[in-house]
Amino acid sequence: MQRGFTFPEVLAIFLIVALTATMAIPSVNNGLAARELESAAMLLASDLRYLQQLSLNAAPGKTYTLVFRNAAPFGYYLMSNLQVVKHIQFDSSIELKAPPPSVSFSVAGVPKSGYTITLRSKKIGKFKYILIEGAIGRVRVSDSGA
User: Fold this and answer.
1) Contact 140, 49 (CB under 8 A)
2) pLDDT tens column, 111-126
3) Is the pLDDT of residue 1 over 70?
4) What residues does each domain of the chain span?
5) What number of CA atoms fall less than 13 Å from residue 20's CA on the CB side?
6) Is cis: bond before 26, omega within 30 of 0?
7) DSSP assignment of 23-64, as one string?
8) Superfamily name with CATH number, domain 7-142
């Protein structure tokens, strides 16, 4: 007596595995796109907080500004007196939606006004909002614009 599987049995198992994989791949891609969006939002919020700290500790006459690139490829520049300190380019699936031209903080760590910076994932259509409160300079990331 021979032990093993027949060809139709092996073929049926491969078909089941292939069907399961084709159903799982879109959810994995959506998860990756959501993670890319979250990472971009957290990086931008982190750099805004860094800019705020640099402004608090800046020498007289030294200014720090975050300037947005509002066209593909989307991203931003962290600048010190018109010199680029850091350049970030977002993944091609992330876009900025109508950001302010630039953000800067006073020596007290307060922005000129409150800002809402919107990031959108082209792959899944979700949004992340980076909110900067004008009165106190608090920087936070939100799933809603409020």
Assistant:
1) no
2) 988 999 999 999 999 9
3) no
4) 7-142
5) 6
6) no
7) HHHHHHHHHHHHHHHHHHHHHHHHHHHHHHHHHHTPPTT--E
8) minor pseudopilin epsh domain (3.55.40.10)
